[in-house]
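Below is how a single chain appears once it has passed through the pipeline. First comes the sequence as given, then the structure the pipeline wrote out for it. We keep one example in the README because the format questions we get most often are answered faster by looking than by reading.
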Amino acid sequence: MNRFTPLPAGLAFRHPATLLATWFGAGLLRPAPGTWGSIAAVPFAYAIVHFLGAPALAFAALTAFAVGIWASERYCTAAGTEDASEVVIDEVAAMWLVLAALPLSPVNWIAGFVLFRIYDIWKPWPIRNVERRFKGGFGIMADDMIAAIYAVLAFVFFDILITVIA
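Resulting structure:
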């Protein structure tokens, strides 16, 4: 089994769209490129929060969302597909949004990671509808951002529930 997805013809690894769309190659890893992309987002998130704070991470998430629209569109056009599995900038932007909303601790961040992956894979309403309705870079990016919002809401719900029970 090949551990890496080959790049589309005409798009070099060093091309900015490739570097960003695959998050510096994390999305080329197999299996589960979305999970690898989510994992690769965490060290960057920690550095941003550590040096600049959670609001800076939220801003970085929105910036990654905007840049990701272009990068994923460019990469998928070169790959000849609507949503290439190796495009993980959407996971990066969404993970950053989740982690910006959570208190900085390993337990909280692991919970946020797990909740985001659950919603990103499960795609409950309206995530799947957004994924089907919007095509191109915006569609690739938007469904993950909604999954991030679901993950944050679930985290808050469970946090309140644990507080009430305890």
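Helices lie at 16-21, 33-52, 54-79, 89-101, 106-122, 127-133, 136-165.

See the next section for the split statistics.
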